[in-house]
Design goal:
Layout: H1 2-41, H2 44-50, E1 51-61, E2 64-69, H3 70-80, E3 87-96, E4 99-107, E5 111-122, E6 125-137
Parallel strand pairs: 1-6
Antiparallel strand pairs: 1-2, 3-4, 4-5, 5-6
Amino acid sequence: MKFSLLSLILTTIIMTQTQAQDTNLSSIENTINLYFDGMINHNSASIKKAFAPTASMKWVEKGEYKEVNATAALTEYLDSNKPSKSVARITSINRKGDTANVGLEIEYETFTFVDYMHLLMINNEWLIVSKTYTTIPKEF
């Protein structure tokens, strides 16, 4: 009887933790999908939902380090350009506690953006607080 009760308790704990992890991963994916919607459909409202207001965006351009407010820069870019055909995918998700790191790619006709998003759980919501990226040109 003790063995059965102990097994039931352990199974319940494991299932509860697994469900919590699945919920967190799903919530993280939802935030990244807002980013994808913003970038692919040029929907700046989705970008504003995905990013914390003070989120940063960092990259290296011609050997020079650049940093801007991600929400402002992406919104300006999306509002002043037309969408173009692209394919987006999540390549990795790492989560511990209230922090997560997501690798992703958005592939366009001539290049691919490779992004690394850093997310925090803020007020029970996963938000992107930092984006670092590089651009990989396609070889023809």
